[in-house]
Amino acid sequence: MQIAFIAVIMVSYCMQRVYRGYGCLLLLALTLILGAPGMAAGQATAKNDTQAILTEVSQLMARREYSTALELFDKIDKPVLQTAEIQLLRASVLNSAGRSAEARAIASGISSRAPNNIDALLVLAASAAFEGKDREQRTFLERVIKLDPKNLKALSDLGYIALRNQSLRIAAGHFDNALAIDGNYREALVGRAIVYNYAHEPKKSEQLFNKAIQLNPQWAMPYNERARLYKGAGYLQDALHDLDQAKKLDPDSYWISVDRAGTLIELNRKPEALEELNHAVALSPQSFLAYIYRAGIKDETGDYKGAEQDYLVLTKLKPDYYFAAEGLGIIKMRNHQYTEARDAFLAAYRYAPKEYRYALLAAINWMKAGKPSDPKQFLAQVLRTVPRDSADWYILRLYHDLSGDSDTVDKAAREQNFDAKSTMLFYIANYYDIRGNKTLANKFFIQVQDMNRIGTVEWKINEFMIEERK
C-alpha cells in the first residue's frame, strides 16, 4: 500500500519543473525584444543595462537563487521596469520563488488591462499550477489556445495536467498536437515519452527520451524521466547512470535526489541512499516523500530514534499518510511509551477506519497504560462497523468483553488464511499478556513467530516482544 501511495504523487512534479522553466523562456524572449534595432542613444544605454541585469537574473534563476534575482529588478530603469514585459518576468520569478499570490496579482492587473496578453495568461496558469489548482490552470491555458491555437507552451502544459490526472489519451493528444507543430519541442517530447511509458510502450518511450536528450544534453529532466522508465523495467544500473547524469546537471533538484535514493534502495545500497535522502531533506524540508524513504531505512537498520523523528515530521506534514502514525506507534510501543503509542495508532485509525488492526493496537496500549476496561467505549463504537463473525469481530469482541477467549482461540484454529490466523494469534497472545496469563501469552507469541508472516505489522511487533521476554 505504501508503494502505491508513493507512485500516485510522483506524476505531479513534472508539471512544476516545466513551469519553473517558463521564467527563463520569457527572459529569452525579452532579451531578444530589448536587443531589437532602431533605438535612440539613451534608449540603447537603458537597453544594455537591462539586458545585463536580465542576463544575471537568468543565471540566478538557473541556480534557484530567486530572492537575489528579484532584488535585481530594483536596478532596472523605472520606465522599463513598469512595462508589462518586465513585470511579467518579475511575476514569473515570483512564481518560481513560491510567491504565487504576488505573481498572480501582477499578471491579473496586466490581464485586466490587456485580456489577450498571452504571457500574462501563462503566468496566471503557472500561479495556479504552483497552488495545485488544476481547473483554474486549465482555464487559463485554454484561453491561450483560443488566442493562439499553436501555442506550444499551452499545449504541452495541458498535456501535463491530463497526465497528472491520469488521462493518458487526452495527454497524448495535447503532446501530439504540440509535436505536429514542432517535432523537437522538448517539453512535449518528454511528456509524450512519459505517456508511452505509462501506456506500456517502453520502446517508443525510450526513443523519445533519447531524442530529447540528444537535442538537449544539458537538460536534466529527460535523464530523470528515462531513469524512471529503466527503473520500472528493472534496469536499475541504467536508471542510476541516468540519475547520476541528471544530478550533475541539476544538483539541487529535490525530485532527482529522491528518485536517485529510491533506486539506490532497490540496489540495496542503503547507506548511499540515506546520504542522498539527507540531501533531499536539506533541499526541501517541507516536502514529505524523502522522509518516508528515510524513516524506512532508519527503522529497518535499527536507528529507532532517527526513524521516530522522521515519522513525527511526517504526521505533521502529511497526516493522511497513516503509515507514519503506524511507524511512530510501533516505536513508542517498543519504548514502552504506551500512552503515546495509543495516540499514534488512534491517529492512524482515524485516517484508515477499515484497518481494524489500528483500533486493536490502540486498545492494547490503552490497556497497558491504564486498566483493561479503559478502551471499552471506544471498542464498542468500532464493533458496530465490523462484519459480524469475521476474524476482526472475534478479536475486537474479546478485547471489549474481556471474556470469550476460548471461542476466539477456536476461531483462530479453524482459520485457513495464514496471514489472518497469525494476526489473530498475535492479539490472543497480547490479550493473555494483559490479563496476566504469561504462560498462555508466551505460547501464542511463539506460534506467531513460528508462522513467520514477515512484513505484517503484527509480526514486527511480535519479534521485539519475544526478544523482551527472553
Q: What is the name of the CATH architecture of the domain at 319-469?
A: Alpha Horseshoe
- Please name the fourth-level CATH homologous superfamily of the domain at 319-469: Tetratricopeptide repeat domain
Average of per-residue pLDDT values: 90
Globally, the shape reads elongated
Strand content: under 5%
| Unreliable parts | 1-16, 18-22, 28-44
**Largest beta-sheet details:** none
CATH-derived topology of the domain at 319-469: Serine Threonine Protein Phosphatase 5, Tetratricopeptide repeat
Work out the radius of gyration: 28 Å
> Which secondary-structure class do the elements indicate?
mainly alpha
CATH class of the domain at 319-469: Mainly Alpha
Q: What is the H/E string?
A: HHHHHHHHHHHHHHHHHHHHHHHHHHHHH
Beta strand count: 0
Distance N to C terminus = 33 Å
How many H/I helical runs?
29
Identify the quaternary structure here: single chain
Helix content: over 70%
